[in-house]
Amino acid sequence: MTEYAYPSRTVSMDQNPALPDLGSPFVLPNGARLKNRLVKAAMSEQLGDRHHDPGPGMENLYGQWARGGAGLSISGNIMVDRNAIGELRNVVLDAHSDLNAFRRWTTAGSSHGTHLWAQLNHPGKQIIKLLCDEPVAPSAISLGSGLEKHFNCPRALTEDGIEKIIAQFATSARLAKAVGFTGVQIHGAHGYLINQFLSPLHNQRTDQWGGSLSNRMRFVICVYQAIRSVVGDTFAVGIKLNSADFMRGGFTEDESLQVVVALGNLGLDQLEISGGTYESPAMVGEQASSTREREAYFLNYAARVREVSTLPLVVTGGFRSAAAMTAALHDAATDFIGLARPLALEPDMPTRLLSEADYRIDLRPLSTGFAALDRIATLNVSWYEHQLQRMARHQLPKPGLSEWLSLGKTLLDFAACARKKRSTRRSTYKR
To answer: Cβ atoms within 10 A of the Cβ of 139, count?
Structure first.
């Protein structure tokens, strides 16, 4: 089989190498060899225990995905600061973590020749009120689009606070390498803290961390450099980056391309393209453009990336058929196919894609019939979380799972958040 490598991507045994297919291996800039072009993209699992260590369900879930045939599997959000938890059952990787629990997870998730990367994140102000009274952000600006009802206005980070978070990213990356992850992905998309720094809408600082794009990208550059300094050149470091925020006055495609070039010049190993924020959720199909033929949401932006960068590229969102995925590789629109929600219903989808040229999966639209309720409950995320939790318990996914049942589970989680917060306040008062 022809093997492809960065940056030329064509190391062949003859003068006319075949076009890449879904099963073609790929060598990243750091030297890591991925066995195929299929990437299990990050999804929120909500499988952390009460100490925010990975529960045993993580081993079960990621073991299934490793058996399912993906060349690369990327974890859901792993938080770098246990005082900034985006969701109730987020996993945290820091000096207080149970590293053996992480090692059990990585052993299962990296079996069958699968690479397993840790997605590292800080939510910034995207923490619901029930979990945080005063989140932090580049500037003291609330979320919009009605979300200010559910998210508290953040406190603007001090210079020392910014430096502390950069160091936390580095610590989590160092530990990720120590416990057996084969790489890390920096989460720079979807309105979380790094994206907040990049956005002129949410970053209105007047110091070296705000204003011009070169200042607004300083935070992600420093995070990358801090991570690289502790993991070395042979450990994979990638990023998930918004193509745009799809918001008036937000982070734009032109700005995103400049960030891509800057990170590429510093030695980044892989770029995953996404888009949108909590306020404008293109990552679940809203606002993002796609066509029936090409399927994927962000291929037009990917073409622009190709003009300015040779970074290995992952396009995630919208792919549903082997034919469209193969066509995207043949067109050099992307190097890897990112798959998320389909793998919550068919964990062996990569194996089927590699063996069935006519394979296709279609996901049904989800709604309770009340759009506002769907959005408050983040139905297009939580319904899939509940599928992952079934798999973590060794149960089969349930495509027919009722939206109302999923909503009920989500409301119970909110109630658990409220109880936890009241309990914490009582304990603090007693002390």
So the answer is: 20
Q: Cis ω on the peptide bond leading into residue 7 (within 30° of 0)?
A: yes
Tell me which residue of 72, 23, 41, 48 sits closest to 341, measured CA to CA: 41
Alpha helices in 117-238 (DSSP H): 159-179, 193-198, 213-216, 218-231
Residue indicated by tokens 């073609």: 24
* Strand pairing class (26-27; 33-34): antiparallel
Cα distance between residue 44 and residue 284, in whole Å:
13
Tokens of 257: 């391309």
Calculate the CA dihedral of residues 53, 109, 24, 343 and round it to 10 degrees. -80
> Of the candidates 117, 84, 80, which has an alpha carbon nearest to the alpha carbon of residue 97?
80
Q: Can you list the pairs that 381-385 forms with residues at least 24 positions away whose Cβ atoms lie under 8 Å?
A: 381/44, 381/284, 382/406, 382/407, 382/409, 382/410, 384/43, 384/341, 384/344, 385/43, 385/44, 385/45, 385/46
In a 3-state reduction of DSSP, which class is residue 328? helix
d(CA 69, CA 353): 9
Question: Per DSSP, which regions of 80-142 are E strands?
Answer: 91-92, 115-121, 136-137
Cβ-proximal residues to 75 (8 Å cutoff; 6+ apart), any chain? 42, 45, 62, 91, 109, 116, 117, 118, 119, 181
| C-alpha span between 140 and 60 (Å, rounded) | 41
Residue 148 pLDDT grade (very low, low, confident, very high; cuts 50, 70, 90): low
147: left (phi over 0), alpha (psi -120 to 50) or beta: alpha
Range 157-163 contact pairs with CB under 8 angstroms and sequence separation of 24 or more = 159/207, 159/209, 161/136, 162/209, 162/219
Phi, psi dihedral angles at 165 (to 5 degrees): -65, -40
3-class secondary structure, 393:
coil
35-93 pLDDT, tens digit per residue, is 999 999 999 999 999 999 999 999 999 999 999 999 999 999 999 999 999 888 999 99
Our separate counts of H helices and E strands in the chain read 13, 14
Residue type, 153: C
272 - beta bridge partners?
A: 240, 314
| Helix, coil or strand: residue 310 | coil
Task: Report yes or no on whether pTM surpasses 0.85.
Answer: yes
Task: Kindly write down the DSSP assignment for every residue of 8-29, as one continuous string.
Answer: T--B-SSSSPPPP-TT--EE-T
